[in-house]
């Protein structure tokens, strides 16, 4: 029987691969709120964020067999799928809207308070880690992950050589990973 949060997620994906709709619902219950918050943060629109989450879970249903646990956790897979679909939508309407980094995710229903609280704690940890980054690395990551700019677009916008932009993003991600690592271990130990 799965004991850690990651083990539970992997077991759910294996069941989804066998077309178990209850497993898909359980995975949604576990991560839907956090993913919706991410999509909303990028898009700034509740309806579009909800559509993205529907697309992500439809993708999970169709592509569960493509999940590779050696490449990362189920949550990371879901986050990447959510981020990618959100940025695709953002790019499609780039001329009319830029995602605001200061917008808070929509409040969740009372039955999701525990998940919301955990998500807020995680968001607080991530925000704190991002604030500790050097300004140039933080700005490059914000432009890439929250505004959906490509490395080339960041280089043009910041008037910085492309190689420097790539280095800043890589170093920033490495520093974030190191700062967040203790919390990831704490989460898996608590499960």
Average pLDDT, to the nearest integer?
80
What percentage of amino acids are in beta strands?
under 5%
The name of the CATH architecture of the largest domain is Orthogonal Bundle
Q: CATH superfamily name of the largest domain?
A: RNA polymerase sigma factor, region 2, helix turn helix motif
Query: In this structure, how is the largest beta sheet organized?
Result: none
Overall geometry comes to: globular
The H/E string reads HHHHHHHH
Give the helix level as a range of percent.
Answer: over 70%
- Number of individual domains: 2
Spans of at least 5 consecutive residues whose pLDDT stays below 50 are 96-113
- What is the CATH fold-level name of the largest domain? Rna Polymerase Sigma Factor, Chain: A
- How many DSSP H or I helices? 8
| Rg computed from alpha carbons, rounded to a whole number of angstroms | 17 Å
Describe this structure in words.
With 191 residues, this protein is mostly helical. About 9% of the residues have low confidence.
Give a brief outline of the structure.
This protein is an all-alpha fold.
Strand-helix topology:
Layout: H1 5-17, H2 21-43, H3 46-63, H4 74-92, H5 113-131, H6 135-145, H7 151-158, H8 162-190
Keywords:
single chain, 191 residues, mainly alpha, Rna Polymerase Sigma Factor, Chain: A, Arc Repressor Mutant, subunit A, 8 helices, 73% helix
């Amino acid at each position: 029987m799965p004991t850690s949060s990651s083990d539970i997620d992997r077991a759910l994906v294996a069941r989804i691969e066998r077309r178990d709709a209850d497993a898909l619902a359980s995975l949604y219950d576990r991560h839907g709120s956090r993913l919706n918050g991410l999509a909303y943060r990028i898009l700034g629109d509740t309806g579009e964020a909800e559509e993205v989450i529907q697309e992500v879970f439809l993708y999970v249903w169709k592509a569960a067999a493509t999940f590779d646990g050696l490449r990362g956790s189920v949550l990371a897979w879901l986050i990447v799928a959510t981020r990618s679909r959100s940025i695709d939508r953002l790019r499609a309407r780039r001329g009319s809207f830029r995602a605001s980094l200061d917008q808070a995710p929509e409040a969740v229903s009372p039955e999701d308070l525990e998940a919301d609280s955990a998500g807020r704690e995680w968001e607080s940890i991530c925000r704190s880690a991002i604030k500790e980054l050097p300004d140039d690395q933080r700005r490059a990551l914000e432009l890439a992950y929250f505004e959906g700019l490509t490395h080339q677009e960041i280089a043009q916008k910041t008037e910085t050589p492309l190689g420097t932009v790539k280095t800043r993003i890589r170093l920033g991600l490495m520093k974030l990973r190191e700062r967040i690592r203790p919390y990831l271990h704490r989460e898996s130990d608590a499960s």
